[in-house]
Amino acid sequence: MTIAVDAMGGDDAPAEIVKGAFKASKGSKAKILLVGNEKAIRKHLPPLYKRRGIEIVHCDDFIRMDESPGTSLRKRNEASLVVAARLVREGKAQALVSAGNTGALHQIALLEIGRLKGVRRPALAALLPSEGEPVLALDLGANADCKPEYLLQFAWMGSTYSHRVMGIKKPRVGLLNIGTEVSKGNTLVHHTYELLEQAEGLNFVGNVEPTGIFKGEIDVVVCDGFVGNMMLKSAEAISEFILKRMKQAATTNARAKLGGLMLRPSLRSLKQDISHSDHGGAILLGLKGIVIKCHGRADRATVCNGIKAAEQALESDVLGRIGESISPSSVEA
Fold first, then answer.
1. What is the C-alpha radius of gyration for the chain, rounded to an integer number of angstroms?
2. pLDDT tens across 190-219, in order?
3. Where are the beta strands (DSSP E) in the chain?
4. Which pLDDT belongs to residue 130?
5. pLDDT tens-place string over residues 121-142
6. Domains and CATH numbers, the chain
7. What is d(CA 129, CA 259) in angstroms, rounded to the nearest whole number?
8. Do residues 29 and 50 lie in contact, with contact meaning Cβ atoms separated by under 8 Å?
9. Whole-model pTM?
10. Is residue 223 within 8 Å of residue 244, measured between CB atoms?
11. Quick one: three-class SS letters along 173-212?
């Protein structure tokens, strides 16, 4: 298997991206293609990198983090993200990993790689921490405006990923809502609930509130991209705020410093639980290739885990299983 890595995408590219790829190459079965400026990439690679199954695919251009997605991106044929996606389209790679511009990645992946047959919209899925096993949430920003049929497909794709990659025998699927009662929610949620309830073979357990996600009441949670992205960013912001305030509180006086010192191992474990680095990033489900979106602030550990996530998805044949799992009723226009 071959994984193309956008070496120029991300706040700390190419240094952290390249070092993360080199770290992932240790013991990996995958061949890794680092796509970007060869001179810049080589600065962060040991001389014998080829022995680790790493190759460099040179291109001069790259898409900046602050660029707005649009028709102009279609003309950027030599941008690292475009070249990496093209490698997947041409079969020279089976997966793409990038910490770059999210909007650009979504657009380019659709144009260059394309959707699996029957998939109406790809969905951005990521693991959220919970009191039990991590919960797969989708869509987290790929589709701001959705139809009930899209959310039905998200449920099938999420359930398939949860089963094939995470090893959950019969994933519990919940619909994100403002209450667990069937009567709660807007028109989109009401119509989606009906479709999910009627979906034969899908383990739909009903509506779930955000608290239910973090309590581990479900394995997969489905929502439209606008709501999902707001939930994800709010959760990230709140967790960072709490950790920052706890750190400040632990330095106010001598007694607090002593308590903070004693709590340091537990706080380190808490930080690890809510960190995006352990899971590598989000996966764009529904495309003809595996596409992993790492956090824009991705460090080498995040990139390494993103590459491992891509490798695991390929080994599990997630693409083939998603194609089989899409309900015929959800494919109708």
1. 20
2. 999 999 999 999 999 999 999 999 999 999
3. 2-6, 31-36, 54-58, 95-98, 123-128, 135-138, 173-176, 204-208, 220-222, 282-285, 290-293
4. 86
5. 999 999 988 888 899 999 999 8
6. 1-119+286-333 (3.40.718.10), 123-275 (3.40.718.10)
7. 26
8. no
9. 0.87
10. no
11. EEEECCCCCCCCCCHHHHHHHHHHHHCCCCCEEEEECHHH
